[in-house]
C-alpha cells in the first residue's frame, strides 16, 4: 500500500507565503504510523485574523525554528510518500512559496491528493468542510490547529479508503517551481 504524508499548515497573515505551524500525520498500510508537529517562526508579521483563528502569535513562535531550520526534519518525511491535505492546493501553494522565499531547492513536482476533491466525488450531496466531515465520521477535531487538522484529514482519508475508494484515482501532480 502507498505511504501518505498528510499535512496541514497554519499561516501568520493573508499573504499565505509563510508557515506559523505545521502538522504531519503519516499513513502506511492503512494505519497511522507517525506524526510530527512544530510551531514555525515565519519571520514576518501576524494579522489579527490569523492569530485569532489559530491562536498563534508572534510571541508564541518567538523561539521556534524558522522554516529552513525545520525543513531538515520535514524534507525526509515529505519525500517519503504522497502528500495529502484537505484543500490541498492551499497547503501545497504555501509550501511552494516557503521553498521559493527561502531559496530551498527540493524537487520540481510532487504527487498529492486532496481530500476535499476526493470527498466531492465520494459524498457529492454534503459539505466538504473539515469540521463537517469530522462531525459526519465522528472524528475529534480542534480546528485550525495544524496537528489536529492533519490527524483529522488522515482519518477522513482512511474512512474513504475503508469505504472502497481507490486513492490512486485522485493523485495529481503539483509544480513546485
What does this structure look like?
The chain is of the alpha/beta class. It has a single domain, classed as 2-Layer Sandwich (Nucleotidyltransferase, domain 5). Helix content is 40%, strand content 21%. The chain is built from 7 helices and 6 strands, in the order E-E-E-H-H-H-E-H-E-H-H-H-E. It has helices at 48-54, 58-61, 67-78, 88-101, 115-122, 130-137, 146-162; strands at 4-10, 21-28, 31-39, 82-85, 109-114, 172-175. It has a 6-stranded mixed beta sheet with strand order 3-2-1-4-5-6, sandwiched between helices. Strand 4, helix 4 and strand 5 form a beta-alpha-beta unit. The longest helix is centred in the last third of the chain and has 17 residues, at 146-162. It is globular. The relative contact order is 0.20. The model has no long low-confidence stretch (mean pLDDT 97).
| DSSP helix fraction | 25-40%
Number of strands: 6
The first-to-last residue Cα distance is 29 Å
At the third CATH level, what is the topology name?
Nucleotidyltransferase, domain 5
Radius of gyration: 16 Å
Count of the domains: 1
- Count of helical segments? 7
Q: pLDDT under 50 segments (min length 5)?
A: none
**How is the main sheet built?**
6 strands, mixed
Give the full name of the CATH homologous superfamily: Ribonuclease H-like superfamily/Ribonuclease H
> By helix and strand content, what is the structural category?
alpha/beta
Tell me the β content. Answer: 15-25%
- The pLDDT mean sits at 97
The assigned CATH architecture is 2-Layer Sandwich
Q: In CATH, what is the class?
A: Alpha Beta
Output the helix-strand order: EEEHHHEHEHHHE
Amino acid at each position: 500500500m502507498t505511504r501518505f504524508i498528510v499535512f496541514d499548515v497554519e499561516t501568520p497573515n493573508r499573504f499565505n507565503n509563510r508557515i506559523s505551524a505545521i502538522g504531519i500525520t503519516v499513513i502506511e498500510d492503512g494505519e497511522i504510523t507517525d506524526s510530527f508537529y512544530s510551531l514555525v517562526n515565519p519571520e514576518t508579521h501576524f494579522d489579527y485574523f490569523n492569530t485569532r483563528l489559530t491562536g498563534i502569535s508572534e510571541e508564541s513562535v518567538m523561539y521556534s525554528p524558522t522554516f529552513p531550520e525545520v525543513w531538515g526534519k520535514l524534507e525526509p518525511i515529505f519525500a517519503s510518500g504522497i502528500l495529502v491535505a484537505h484543500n490541498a492546493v492551499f497547503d501545497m501553494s504555501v509550501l511552494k512559496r516557503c521553498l521559493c522565499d527561502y531559496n530551498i531547492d527540493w524537487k520540481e513536482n510532487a504527487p498529492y491528493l486532496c481530500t476535499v476533491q476526493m470527498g466531492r466525488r465520494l459524498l457529492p450531496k454534503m459539505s466538504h468542510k473539515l469540521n463537517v466531515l469530522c462531525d459526519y465520521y465522528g472524528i475529534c477535531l480542534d480546528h485550525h490547529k495544524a496537528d489536529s487538522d492533519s490527524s483529522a484529514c488522515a482519518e477522513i482519508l482512511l474512512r474513504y479508503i475503508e469505504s472502497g475508494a481507490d486513492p490512486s484515482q485522485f493523485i495529481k501532480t503539483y509544480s513546485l517551481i
